Amino acid sequence: MMQPFTNSNKLGNVLIILLVLGLFLSILSLSFTIIEAFLTQFYIFSITINLDILLSKISIILHLLAGLVFISWIYFVNKDLKKLYGNYSMSSIEVLINPLIPIYNMWAIGNIFANVADALTGEDEYLKNKCLSLNKKLPWLFGVMFVSYGIELIGNRIIYHNPMFFIFSDMVYIFLYYIWLKISLITTKSIGYKIKMRNLN
User: Fold this and answer.
1) Is-contact 103 149, C-beta < 8 A?
2) In the predicted structure, residue 44 carries a pLDDT above the cut 80
3) Residue 158: predicted pLDDT
4) How far, in Å, CA of 53 to CA of 87, rounded?
5) Which residue, 16, 127, 143, 155, is the most exposed by fewest CB within 10 angstroms?
6) Distance of alpha carbon 18 from alpha carbon 70, whole angstroms
């Protein structure tokens, strides 16, 4: 009998915690950016600059950590789906390598979650609704990832010193963390539910 609490469940919960922290830090960063952009004449400006620099360093570490946990998590999600469905199509190598390839990974990550949704669809009303919600969020994920790539590629060449660019950038990353969080929650809950139902049968 399969164990109801698998590696993907554990890593999924860790990833969710990291994404919640990332979302919180992104909101803080946006708040500091707005203060720096519009309250330059106040004493609080100098305080927020120092806090924003510290926050940026913490955010980079958190972003890298979340990326490593995500790759590990999606690998174990793939293994769980292969246990649940012997004909699940994606290989472990695809799941590990494709998200690491720049630009291509926008499609690859969306394809991974589309396969997850297809595998779980049709089980019962609960999973059907979860998978429908997951599929609806994938275009948003692709779009916000595309915009974030654009920010990284052209930001420092064109409008890097424009305060409105920083505000826009922070808003994009808030939305990116939010979409990642929702997709991770849906996937973790759906697979956990499916494993629980399998163990009860």
Assistant:
1) yes
2) no
3) 56
4) 49
5) 143
6) 10
